């Protein structure tokens, strides 16, 4: 118990490091994964920007990244991480691999959410002469909003688990704390505490995501 009290400053730091890693990766997922997911949808057969080549190339790249286990992706991207942030340890370094994993993951969720939209609405907009950008901005994004938020919640929860994995190779955060103070020192109290902390974070993110998704759902 005393060891746990002494670790409170480290727990606080690990908590904020996890938030930093996941926050950066989520922001990158929205900036890049959202447009990619929309691109996958609107270039599909029968849609207003149908393009088999783009659809296939983007789909293959996304599937390739998603098929690589995160721990392998983490090691594989170490040279890129060193190039971008000039270090391979710490939360900023881990956020590079987390971002790369989050982009294709969220892109597929975005594509799936967009497929739930009634195509008749889109066809009517095309018939009225609406531009592709107008259709995306005024129809696809608003109609898919609940699914996009739910998908972002799922992505965030996956990233929390990935961030704990990143801690095994010095990525910082709660996973790093569990390895250094719990596993290496055989301190079960620290291990249980970090697990409970992760569960609390996941439950909070899930509740918040569900609440926002229900709030914006116009159906």
TrEMBL record:
Any single GO BP term: D-methionine transmembrane transport
CDD domains reported for this sequence: TM_PBP2 (cd06261)
Annotated compartments: Cell membrane
Gene3D superfamilies recorded: MetI-like
Membrane topology recorded in Swiss-Prot or TrEMBL: Multi-pass membrane protein
Broad class of the protein's primary localization: membrane
Transmembrane segments: 20-41, 53-77, 89-107, 147-169, 189-209
The family this protein is said to belong to: Belongs to the binding-protein-dependent transport system permease family. CysTW subfamily.
Protein name, as recorded: ABC transporter permease
Organism: Peribacillus psychrosaccharolyticus
